[in-house]
Design goal:
6-stranded antiparallel barrel, single chain, 2 domains, mainly beta, 3-stranded antiparallel sheet, 11 strands, 37% strand, Elongation Factor Tu (Ef-tu), domain 3
Length: 221
């Protein structure tokens, strides 16, 4: 389980910046300007330690009474998106409820991070687009079978189509994590975080950025 600090933000889109050596880096821009600490989870009360972050404004009329009471107890305005980040107790204690996390205290330029989001939905697609199948041959009498998936059955035993075969169906709109991206730039005043490479999700979608789980705590290389 990833227990490195991270943030919840809105994907604004892509841009490019020039590095110190003159090379161009394609980056994804994450907006964290509306990020706020909603609450804490403690080992004594909840059985685990975690930091609860919220993003975006939420209308009071669209907030349920239990949720509104939770926000009122924390002394903050209702937020649209809420997500827990499992962290050690000493890390959770660094963030006060109702405060805005400082990006410079969470990330450093050059640090490895993991980006997580929901991919764009592509609707119902065939096997060539969904699973990268090669398709059928285009000659030797092939008729209306160019983009089919081919044989899916077995023989008399077991005499049925086995489950979990790659077929056409709904493609996209699923949670995906891209590992080992690099933090390119931090603008704490504007609440912007630039990460080299692409992060799953459409424009204005919510994404999660936290220290890389496969890179020794997400340390800079």
């Amino acid at each position: 389980m990833n227990q490195h600090p991270g943030i919840l933000g809105k994907k604004l889109g892509s841009t490019q910046i020039f590095k110190a050596d003159g090379n161009v880096a394609a980056c994804t821009v994450i907006d964290c300007s509306e990020l706020v600490v909603v609450g804490h989870r403690t080992q004594e009360k909840d059985g685990y330690s975690a930091l609860v972050l919220g993003y975006g404004k939420r209308k009071a009329s669209r907030t349920s009474k239990p949720l509104a009471g939770h926000f009122k107890k924390a002394g903050i305005e209702p937020v649209q998106h809420v997500k827990e980040f499992r962290l050690p107790a000493e890390e959770v204690a660094k963030f006060a409820v109702g405060s805005k996390p400082d990006l410079n205290a969470i990330f450093t330029v050059g640090q490895f991070v993991d980006g997580q989001g929901h991919t764009r939905g592509r609707g119902f697609t065939g096997v060539m687009r969904r699973w990268n199948f090669a398709g059928g041959v285009g000659s030797h009498g092939t008729h209306e079978y160019f983009r089919h998936g081919g044989s899916i059955g077995t023989n008399m035993t077991p005499g049925r189509t086995l489950p979990n075969l790659k077929m056409s169906g709904h493609y996209g709109d699923e949670q995906l994590t891209v590992h080992n991206l690099k933090v390119a730039k931090i603008d704490a005043e504007k609440g912007l975080l630039l990460v080299e490479g692409g992060i799953p999700g459409a424009r204005n979608a919510m994404v999660t950025i936290r220290g890389a789980v496969k890179k020794n705590g997400g340390a800079a290389k």
